[in-house]
Batch of 2 targets.
Target 1
Amino acid sequence: MIAQLLTEAGIQYTVAAGNNKLFKLSGGVLSELTYGGGGVAPTITDSNWQAASLNGILYLFQSGHDPLVFDPALSTTEYRRASEHAGYTGTVLAGDCAISAFGRIWTANSTTNKDTVYFSDLLSGMKWSGGTAGFYNRFTTFFFKFFSQLSVRRYQRYDYITSLYRDWETDRKSFV
């Protein structure tokens, strides 16, 4: 995984995963990011992370792992679990598919739940309960019944999640 984060101040960060570690590219040199949260550092395995940025924070997802964040406002050399970030509420799914779209972080496809897409509160990737945060389960949400043959795949994640959002908006407006 190689991901870029562009802050409101115009500073660009490049973060990469490899060799079971997280790195930051700075001045043409890769340096390892260290764990800056509380307690024991999470184990980084498989280097199969998905990244999504929202409001100056880079969110990292991999199935079976706690979601991680790189927030340059806190530190440019450290990462931490999303749950350790100030303002975190709810429980974020440890999915392996993530995207930032429509002012939210969207994630799906955990080791235990392949049928639900979770989304954060509007403009806050740290809030997974309350506000406008929520989820769509393809078996219980009205429009998902029509898409029961679809599954989230990494190479289709943007098209899949955005098409589901548009369909949900259409369904939601028809009930108002």
Target 2
Amino acid sequence: MSIIYTEEMLVKKLSSYKKFSVIATVVIMLFGVYIGVQSYQRASYVMSDYSTIKATVTKAQHWQEEGKKGRMKDIYEINYSFNLNGKSHSSSFRTNNDNYNIYKASGIVEIAYSNKDHSQFDRFELLKSQSSIIGLAGRMGIMLIAVIFFFTVIGLIVKVKLRKKVGMPIQDNT
């Protein structure tokens, strides 16, 4: 059994979608801003009084995982460690193919750590980019554009599918 849509039903569904997309955009943006500010604060804390050290790459791994629709996806991971005041620290990160090859060949990762709290550390280049307020604003702007684009495309798809069900023209002023 199929539902026969009237023009009134179509208008209600499109109105509901618009409300949903506005709410979803706000929620996603708030979450993104929260994560971005957390990264900015952590990076700013470390970079406010930091030193750098060369960490040793302990493991460089490359493998493939099955992604969406059965496509294979390359994963590159670098594990590193360093000693600071007699204490061993280690971590890992995922990267792209080009950076993976650079880290694997050099065997070194430049680390910045907080002089106040040596347990606060990360890759120097990452902390440098995350501690910039301009970088934070740029990342937030890109995220906003991506979210708006996503919901606009989904909205267009919804409109087309609903209008086909009622046999209405696809163009409108909404």
